[in-house]
Hints:
191 residues
Amino acid sequence: MNIELTPAYIWSQVFTIIMYIILMICYQLKKRKSILVASIIALLCNMAACILLQAWTGLAMCVIALFRNLYSYWDESVHPGQTKITTRDTVILIVVYIAMILVSIPTYDGFLSLMSVFATMSYTYSIWQKNTLVYKFMGVPVGILWIIYNAFVGSFFGVTLEAVLCVASLIGFIVALRAKKNGKRHKKSHR
């Protein structure tokens, strides 16, 4: 990473730090709607960082992810607690994936620029599942892809904090998995 400490770079790292603090909180939240709200705020910070870093593929993914999360938030508000994936959900997923592919074409800057596309696609799949356990599990592969992209665009705090976020995701997944197992054991013992 060749880093020049310009005001734009410094501000990009400030927005990156704020974004990752919010994302770390996301992996500890239990309700899907809360995760989506926090994720929307984090995306706005990420968009600012991408603009300052001139990370155009990442910015394009953030814009699509923002619309994806706004749709998911609306869907969760209209259909609270719905765990079944509907035909509408599948259509939205396909549209979002097509949009990601289309916007990655003009922003393509080599294979490593596509890591943000792969990360956003994976994250989209995890949110689409409507299952917070899947969301927390997918945080690890998504994190690895973002680490690679952040290294590509030269975001020191992006690389560093994404590694921390991977650990937070893994901890959130383990805690949720244990709670789910303990809940099943608790139900069996009351029969």
